[in-house]
Automatic annotation (TrEMBL), chain A:
<feature type="transmembrane region" description="Helical">
    <location>
        <begin position="92"/>
        <end position="114"/>
    </location>
</feature>
<feature type="transmembrane region" description="Helical">
    <location>
        <begin position="59"/>
        <end position="80"/>
    </location>
</feature>
<dbReference type="InterPro" id="IPR000701">
    <property type="entry name" value="SuccDH_FuR_B_TM-su"/>
</dbReference>
<dbReference type="GO" id="GO:0009055">
    <property type="term" value="F:electron transfer activity"/>
</dbReference>
<keyword id="KW-0249">Electron transport</keyword>
<dbReference type="GO" id="GO:0046872">
    <property type="term" value="F:metal ion binding"/>
</dbReference>
<feature type="binding site">
    <location>
        <position position="83"/>
    </location>
    <ligand>
        <name>a ubiquinone</name>
    </ligand>
</feature>
<keyword id="KW-0816">Tricarboxylic acid cycle</keyword>
<dbReference type="Pfam" id="PF01127">
    <property type="entry name" value="Sdh_cyt"/>
</dbReference>
UniProtKB/TrEMBL annotation, chain B:
<dbReference type="InterPro" id="IPR034804">
    <property type="entry name" value="SQR/QFR_C/D"/>
</dbReference>
<feature type="transmembrane region" description="Helical">
    <location>
        <begin position="103"/>
        <end position="123"/>
    </location>
</feature>
<dbReference type="GO" id="GO:0009055">
    <property type="term" value="F:electron transfer activity"/>
</dbReference>
<comment type="subunit">
    <text>Part of an enzyme complex containing four subunits: a flavoprotein, an iron-sulfur protein, plus two membrane-anchoring proteins, SdhC and SdhD. The complex can form homotrimers.</text>
</comment>
<dbReference type="InterPro" id="IPR014314">
    <property type="entry name" value="Succ_DH_cytb556"/>
</dbReference>
<feature type="transmembrane region" description="Helical">
    <location>
        <begin position="64"/>
        <end position="82"/>
    </location>
</feature>
<feature type="binding site" description="axial binding residue">
    <location>
        <position position="80"/>
    </location>
    <ligand>
        <name>heme</name>
    </ligand>
</feature>
<keyword id="KW-0472">Membrane</keyword>
<dbReference type="GO" id="GO:0005886">
    <property type="term" value="C:plasma membrane"/>
</dbReference>
Length: 116, 124
């Protein structure tokens, strides 16, 4: 069996499971925000920051962004290993760029909810 | 494997079944959302930073280009979401036949189109 060191967990079945669990968390977060928006009487800073000022929403958002990072990495890893096969250096560079972007998303989201 | 076996990888001459098209669109919508998430993350950070930041973020989202990005994000998210649910259903063993797969793909396209149109109505 080939052990793939760049995949999220290094194990296909574990990656598959993480992809499902993170998908369910992201789906729940998406549905919550959609319902919240549709139920909102008026778009205002008070309502928006008030939502994120609550502890459970900070935790929910951090959980969602962690799920996003894992989910996006597993998906993009699959796509890059499918399509960028002829040149390993190119694939690794693209993957590193993706990791950097995901890391920035993570840090900025942490910073955004911490400040409220 | 014979090295000179006949292969046809001419994408323009291959007729793709609906299951192949919905599958590649699932990947494309995922990558599109990954790229577009930069706007969402920026929006979150700016809108929560201060009332001024909130006003800037809101103005950006109400700009025609911002609306287009927002709709694009919602469209990619809606399609990816519906296809993800389809995967979860198929993981339980439902719709794993050729006919079942086709039907599920058609349903996914139909539901996605409705959601994408609704998202457009909401944005504009």
């Amino acid at each position: 069996m080939v052990k793939n060191i760049t995949s999220f967990t290094g194990n296909g079945v574990a990656d598959w499971l993480v992809q499902r669990v993170s998908a369910v968390i992201l789906a729940a977060y998406t549905l919550f925000l959609v319902v919240w928006f549709l139920a909102l009487p008026e778009w205002s800073y008070e309502a928006w920051s008030g939502l994120f000022a609550q502890g459970w929403m900070k935790i929910f958002t951090v959980l969602a962004v962690l799920s996003f990072v894992a989910h996006a990495w597993i998906g993009i890893w699959t796509a890059t290993t499918d399509y960028l096969k002829s040149n390993t250096a190119v694939r690794i560079l693209v993957q590193l760029a993706v990791i950097l972007v995901l890391f920035i998303y993570l840090i900025v989201t942490f910073d955004a909810v911490w400040g409220v | 494997m014979k090295a000179d076996r006949p292969v046809n990888l001419e994408l323009t001459t291959i007729s793709f079944p609906i299951t192949a098209i919905t599958s590649i669109l699932h990947r494309i919508s995922g990558i599109a959302f990954f790229v577009g998430a930069a706007f969402a993350v920026w929006f979150l950070q700016a809108s929560l930073s201060s009332p001024e930041g909130f006003a800037t973020a809101t103005a950006a989202a109400e700009h025609w280009l911002g609306k287009l990005i927002l709709w694009g994000l919602l469209a990619a998210l809606a399609y990816h979401f519906v296809m993800g649910i389809k995967h979860l259903i198929m993981d339980t063993g439902i719709g794993e036949t050729l006919e079942g797969g086709k039907l599920m793909s058609q349903l996914a396209v139909l539901i996605s189109i409705v959601l994408i149109v609704l998202a457009g109505v909401w944005v504009w």
